[in-house]
Amino acid sequence: MKPILSILTVAGAALFFTGCSGHNEAGKTPDTINVNVIELSGQKGSSTDQIIYSGTLQADKMIDLSFQVSGTINSFPVKAGDYVKKGQLVATVDETTYRNQYNAQLAQAKLAEENYNRILAVFQKGSIAEIKMLEAKSNLDQAASAARATYQNIVHTRLYAPQSGYAGDKKTEAGATANPGEPVLQLLDTRSVNVLVAVPENEINRYQTGDHATVSIDAMGNTPLEGSIAEVGVLALNNSANYTVKVKLANPAQALKPGMLCKVVFSTQAAQSLQDKDAAQQLIIPAQAVQVDEQGRSYVYTVNPQHKAQRKLVQTGALYNNGLAITSGLTGNEQLITSGYQKLADQSPVKITQ
Q: Which DSSP helix (H) or strand (E) runs through 144?
């Protein structure tokens, strides 16, 4: 009996300690995280700055160059990024087939000419009817026209730049087969550039052609550049709620390149008054406090009365110089967490620090 009692005693002790260990794990509390906050009650209508839009530079003109005839490309010396002058030879296609066709048509035209000259001489002597001379003249005209048309195929085996610009996307190389109308090179005219700006539907009617705009480009040191609205879109982008506004910028030194990212501010009086009115009705919070979850939803963290982080989904509005507008999701009386939010989860204990 003693061995059995000893085993039971050991097993009971093990269960006791295991139970105590589980109890301690269950009772463990999460760490308190230090955070900084701002009072949203002082953020409503705190910005009267103009709305900042994001934009992308685009060449003023983009021309797709293509051959009008098919054939094997013999030479294509132009590289992407090269500056091409108006009238410069860009590429050539093998002309052998078209040269042979032209020679055949030219021989037919010469034969028709000789035939016409003989018949004309006979007609002038009155030995042949006029209709025979007219038929010979028609055959000559047709053969000469066919030869000229065939010669145009030879001309079209050489591709020239219709205007000066930079070679953009080079779509093929020497040795490949060119097809009529199929682009082989994109030519970019960057003497002036356009800034493409996506503007929400509730703001698009603020702007008109000719309105002033200020553009700053990160790659150019954010030096303000002056431009004006060239076009205001009337069709939504990809069935979204955004429309394209095109701002034209002069580019005499051609330092501005297509694809550069920039920020755009429209400074018309009508836009300014509407922006001021909107800003007075919205919460403006630091943009870095807004995060996006895996479903693409925007959210922020606030502090609840139990000193815990509370995650709140929000709808964002326009971007201003001093923050991001919040259109829904906050009442304006919360304490918004502005630092330390990276470590937070919903209901995490927090301690407000200054």
A: helix 130-155
- Domain range for 199 is 52-60+188-279
- Answer yes or no: do 255 and 202 share one domain: yes
| 104 and 116 part of one domain | yes
Contact 206, 223 (CB under 8 A): no
Q: What's this model's pTM, rounded to 2 decimal places?
A: 0.57
Query: What's the pLDDT score for residue 134?
Result: 94
Final residue of a structural domain among 228, 245, 279: 279
User: Residue 158's CB: how many other CB atoms inside 10 A?
Assistant: 15
Total residues belonging to the chain: 354
CATH number at residue 249: 2.40.30.170
Q: Pick from 221, 228, 224: which is nearest to 247 by CA?
A: 228
Q: pLDDT per residue over 323-349, tens digit each?
A: 788 888 888 888 899 888 888 889 999
The verdict on 198 and 56 lying in the same domain is: yes
Q: What is the dihedral of CA 49, 51, 56, 60, to 10 degrees?
A: -90
List of the chain residues with pLDDT < 50: 1-27, 46-48, 270, 274, 277
Spell out the residues 6+ positions from residue 5 whose beta carbon is closer than 8 angstroms to its own: none
Give the domain-ending residue among 237, 260, 279.
279
- Positive or negative, the CA dihedral 283, 287, 292, 296 is positive
Q: What angle do CA 74, 76, 82 make, to 5 degrees?
A: 170
**Assigned domain for 4 exists:** no
- How many of the other CB atoms lie within 10 Å of CB of 124? 10
Measured distance CA(70)–CA(97) in Å, rounded: 10
State the DSSP string of 65-130: EE-SS-EEEEE----TT-EE-TT-EEEEE--HHHHHHHHHHHHHHHHHHHHHHHHHHHHHTT-S-H
Query: What's the number of domains the chain is made of?
Result: 3
Is residue 205 domain-shared with residue 56, that is, in the same domain? yes
Is 288 found in the same domain as 243? no
208-to-60, 112, 127, 240, 249 alpha-carbon distances in Å: 19, 64, 79, 21, 16
